[in-house]
Amino acid sequence: MASFSKKITKTDTEKRLSMPMKFLESLPPFQGGHAVEFQAKDENAEVWTFQCSTRKKGRYKKPVLSKGWLAFASRKKLKVGDRIEFYRARNQTTDESPFYGVRVEREIKLLGSRIGYSPLLSAIKPFSDFISHESRLPCFRPVQTPDPPSPFSF
């Protein structure tokens, strides 16, 4: 289904998130207006309400997320260079209607150069959740190494 991702700019962190025109096709209908609200789930299944609006006049619609965006950006501590992705998907197991998702990835730098992106750490459940349920951490796999030979064995 439709999606878009972009690198976060200063304007995105301080005012609004500009979106590509193509993503408008995947949003709910504007019903003749210039704004539409939609909800998106983040990495933690938290639901966020956003408003996408377009220019009332002019040749180019220039869609932006305004309402709800700054609260999201602040809560996720978005910085210039981070990456955001909005996508529309369908839950295959429950056959629910399509939903929107939003995913944030942190920019990773080494010696001042970007070397990649990493999912938000908030997407990992608190350590206490794993202790209480006696399960393993989903992204950490312990390395199985044989015990070193004892210096006292003959």
From TrEMBL:
Q: Which UniProt keywords apply?
A: DNA-binding, Nucleus, Transcription, Transcription regulation
* Localization: Nucleus
Please indicate if the UniProt record lists Secreted as a keyword. Answer: no
Q: Name one Pfam family in it.
A: B3
Q: Organism's domain of life? A: Eukaryota
Which GO cellular component terms, listed alphabetically, does the Swiss-Prot or TrEMBL entry include?
nucleus
Q: Which residues form the TF-B3 domain?
A: 2-107
What name goes with this protein?
A: TF-B3 domain-containing protein
Which species does the entry assign this protein to?
Salix dunnii
